[in-house]
Amino acid sequence: MSVYHATQSSELIPCLQSLCDQQLHATQIVLVRDGPVQPEVEQCIDSFSSQLPFEHIFFSENRGLGSALQDGLYACENEIV
To answer: pTM for this one?
Structure first.
């Protein structure tokens, strides 16, 4: 999953809540910050950190969705993504 400067916490909350509500819980969620994100997005991520198994990847500059997801895919430990 990738977030970037234009990600809104109001859009991220339902996404993360949906992950929490799954019957089969994820064993790893790779969260790529593609450049700096808004403080509200950081707070949102922090509020779900105790419920979701995040693995965090940070990039200092926005490199684009394709690059961010590719690097996130490399960090995945499971056979099925």
So the answer is: 0.90
- The predicted-structure confidence for 21-66, as pLDDT tens digits, reads as follows 999 999 999 999 999 999 999 999 999 999 999 999 999 999 999 9
Determine the pLDDT at residue 38: 97
CA-wise closest residue to 54 among 11, 25, 21, 22: 25
The separation between CA 46 and the C-alpha centre of its own chain, rounded to angstroms, equals: 11
Neighbours of 45 (CB within 10 A): 20
CA distance 57 to 44: 16
The set of residues, in sequence order, having a beta carbon less than 8 Å from that of 55 and lying 6+ positions away, is 28, 29, 30, 31, 75
Given a contact cutoff of 8 angstroms between Cβ atoms, the answer to whether 13 and 45 are in contact is no
